[in-house]
Amino acid sequence: MAQKPSFFITTPIYYVNAAPHLGTAYSTILCDVQARYRRANGYNVKFLTGMDEHGEKVEEAAEKHGMTPQEWCDSQAPLFKGLWKTLEISNDDFIRTTEQRQVHAVQYLWERMKESGYLYKGSYDGWYCVPEETYFTETQVTKSDEEHHTEGQHLCPDCGRPLERVQEESYFFKLSAFQDRLLKLYDEHPDFVQPDFRMNEVRSFVEGGLQDLSVSRTSFDWGIPVPFDSKHVTYVWFDALLNYMTAVGYGVDTPEAKAELAYRWPAQYHVVGKDIIRFHCVIWPAMLMAIGEALPEHVFAHGFLMVRNEKTGKGEKMSKSRGNAIAPQDVIDMLGVEGYRYYFMTDVTPGEDGAISFSRMEQVYNADLANSWGNLVSRALNMSAKYFDGKTPQLAEGWQDKPNPLRDIAQGIQQRYAQHMDHMEYVQAKDVVMELVHAANHYVEDSAPWTVAKDPARAGELADIITNLLESIRICAHLLAPFMPQTSAEVLRRMNLADQVDTDDQAVACQWGGLRGGVDVQKGDALFPRLAKAGK
Ligand code: ME8
Fold first, then answer.
1. Chain centre to alpha carbon of residue 2
2. Going by CA atoms, what residue is nearest to atom 16 of ligand 1?
3. How far apart are CA 512 and CA 403, in angstroms?
4. Predicted confidence band of residue 335 (pLDDT cuts 50, 70, 90)
5. How remote is the CA of residue 239 from the centroid of ligand 1, in Å?
């Protein structure tokens, strides 16, 4: 049997300087929805996430907590893994950069880099931002100082926090040699960076000229040792970016690992926040070019979650220091996990910065989930149970060919939805599904089954109405499954269709006609009880 096509998708690996938060959860759920969607469409998915454990920032966090860096990282792993489990993240692997597989792969990379001729020893004298783990040149810093009128302490041009002066022996990666090749890559693969407006940002950065990159540190030791020069440890980003290949067997000399790498690499998607776009769209492809490896197909850079200030109506960057950070648990307490996933995936446009607020969460939850989707399911299942003796109606021969308004909307719905899902356009994909949900709710009103039920002569008509409703619900459950897996599974189970839950052919599953007639239905509890008022 032919092997399924591979779909390899990754989140950033998160620093363990702080617990996971709404932002990191956002990137992770974005990937999870895509991973689930691809599994339902016949792909053999590898969905990778993990933790970025080296570097000064993590070392400092450990010190602050009176632990060794390794103890600190070990203490944080359960927090990440726990939140991902709670949020129904279906990752197939969880990589930690302190694992032996990563140490091995990074050391293998050093040897390949040395052979490539793009590595040289020198000394770094410049600025370093520890919170961003990023180097800045004198010019970048001065320019930023002029703009922000800072005196005395130099501040990071990106995050505004104090910079560290670094003077140390270092290995350099000849990034400057890749300018033309990178520009060619962007020309030839305009969808390498998505959404497209982010590509312009990357291109103009590269057009402005590239500096060689310091890729080892000698002033501290929380990093992977350079195999041929033990005084040096690997710069945290040089280590971190490689995780994507480590997880699929890079540098391992066994037939299994080589086969895995050939099957999985290149990745289809690296999903990242806009803050780390340069690392993924400039440095990472240049590293891969240097060692002669294939480049990932797409880097998808999403915007930042902003908190809507209820007074001004404007979005503010969510941060602990502003006191406007929202903890994932607060949202889970209010919306439940499935409501949480639905809200962030369908109300925040992934490419752009998204303003979020508790009042908007409540609005979306009540309108889409409680009043529309949840209400539709409970009405239809209740009526089916009530009018058909606890069962779905018996299906008349050729029922699926009978014209009706819901069937019309359902025609080709999976294809319309897929056009958006393929490009992570989740808001638009949700709109395609909600059109059918809304139409089905209107259909209930228009066809008034409670009236039809009073007339025994109209029994056939009643069966048609309930059948059309249940069939629409079945299809919507399939299409909403990547967003709300538990709810969709529950809806299918209540209709005695548990065997359809893990379909790997969504297009077939969504064809009009998959309902089962004359089987028990369960009314069950309300899927999304209406929220009375904003939780906060
Ligand atoms: O940068 N809104 O890790 P990190 C949306 N270790 N997403 C947000 C966000 C917000 N307000 N805040 C953070 C690192 N994120 C490196 C990555 S990858 C080889 C190494 C998300 O813990 C977003 O995806 O600082 C951002 O890119 C990532 O968290 C940064 O996570």
1. 29
2. 14
3. 11
4. very high
5. 16
